TrEMBL record:
Superkingdom of origin organism: Bacteria
All copies of domain DUF4440, residue ranges: 10-115
A Pfam family of this chain: DUF4440
Protein name: Nuclear transport factor 2 family protein
Coiled-coil residue windows: none
UniProt xrefs under InterPro entries: DUF4440, NTF2-like_dom_sf
Length: 126
């Protein structure tokens, strides 16, 4: 779920990306990200696309829920970004996980599509 006053097309991109992640379908996830997509986490630092898709494809990482309240966004030419607070649940190596974090997704227009090229996660401090 995206709740925000950001441009509607960015909210739609975020909804599509979240739905792909919760589907745990590598093909759907790959359809939302660039070939050079990078996930930056506090635990592992920069994680390349291939590693995340492998972990999801193997079932070692699953997502059961993913929400985000977007608070900041911008579009500049063929680039856009969305920052907000998100929560997700799932499993990692069979153990339950949950996260409450600030998330920034950076999008790039590729032809007629907008694809995420960078996701940066920062744990939220309660």
């Amino acid at each position: 779920m995206i709740t925000t006053q950001i441009p509607p097309f960015l909210a739609e991109l975020e909804e599509r990306f979240n739905a792909a992640m919760v589907s745990n379908d590598v093909g759907r996830i790959a359809g939302c990200i660039t070939d050079d997509w990078l996930l930056v986490t506090p635990e592992a630092g920069p994680v390349p696309r291939a590693r995340i898709l492998d972990v999801v494809g193997s079932g070692r990482l699953t997502h059961a829920s993913m929400t985000k309240v977007a608070t900041h966004a911008a579009v500049v030419g063929d680039m856009a970004w969305v920052t907000g607070r998100g929560q997700n649940t799932g499993t990692f190596n069979g153990a339950p996980i949950q996260a409450d974090e600030y998330i920034t997704d950076v999008y790039r227009r590729v032809g007629d599509c907008w694809l995420c090229m960078l996701t940066h996660l920062t744990p939220a401090q309660s």
